[in-house]
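Milestone M4 deliverable, item 7.
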Amino acid sequence: TMSWLSKFFTKKSTIIGITSLLVTTGCYMLYKKKYNLPIQLIYDESKEEIVKDIPSIQKNFQPHPLFFGSYAQTIISFFVRKNYSIEYKREIIDLSDGGILALDWHFPENTKNHLEEDREEEEEIEKEEEGEETENGEMKTGECLIVIFPGLTGTSASKYIKSICTHLDKSLPSPIVVVCNYRGMNGVELKTQKSYNGCHTDDIREVIKHIHGHYNKIPIYGVGFSLGSNLIIKYIGEEGKNCKLTAAMSISNPFDFNFAVSHWKGFKFDFFLSNPLVMYLKQAVKEHLDAGVFEDNEMKIKPKTLLRSKSVQEFDKHFTIKVGGWKTIEEYYSEASCINHIDNIDIPVLFLNSRDDVMCPISKEFIKTETNHNLIYAITECGGHTAFHGFPNYSLMDLVPCEFFNSIHKYNKKNNKNNNH
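Output delivered:
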């Protein structure tokens, strides 16, 4: 009897095992067929040489099989992304209107940098006066600089920002990397009754001018994520031929805020994306409300109403447009949209967007390669919002900027073009 039972269960286990294997294999084959798709590349033929030298966009993008949907990509990639350790040196920038913001710098080892030069010069003078020997160790010069503009709630401490900083540091020739923390963010005091938003590029302009003043002999590249990508693209378009950047990368750009916001609805969107975003925004502004920054002003900000906001649109209605001086959120969104400035861009720009991005849906109206040959679009079928998490464990957000800037660097050297715009 025991022998018969043993054979029965062994046979049953074998059948279950084979069936599970067949079902798993079938599901994986269906997944590969549906989700392992080529990236759509749209560009003018004049950019062919640059695009061909970006390997990550030449092959199919296969999202991770355990989280391949838009919401899953957007949310889960936040948790599974590696939390790199990176050393920053902070610089506080005084802005022309009395405000301040923080730039967090990461320099390659033994590389000259403007933060240390004054201090080292003072130390050398002191040693000479005291009759001590001075050190004459040679310091390298950075070969390129990348300035990063985070998304709506991002800072230099965000995992995705530390991740791209780490990849840039490993992939580019002696790169200097700097992250712009917006006003009132990442532990910096809000000194005026002006906060950051998706429209005003004055702070971006001052930051890039400051950086260019110290590093005008090497190419300066820009990377923006979500809100930050809108700001940097708007700035580049506004500057036109006067832009101080050599090239830029835009990731998950909204292009047109009114168009994007029209898709922000439904229980799933509110629960998984809108609620966490507005909660973070309220936490950030509460710190400044408690400090009395917005007391005794003509903006008529009502803290209790503001802190009851249930969506980004309500937050913008009760805070952003009052601080920025717009009458309606529609007016603010229209003026902020970088799509109005894309035709005027005068440097190479690569846009990385996903068709399933529920935060920043892509439209054919945003494709402007016919009117501006400087634009390159890489559009994935899936990838979510600021995620693009592939299998087994990588993100296009880390790979593509490195490859793009390397390609630009080589192209400009080969064609004897000035890498400094």
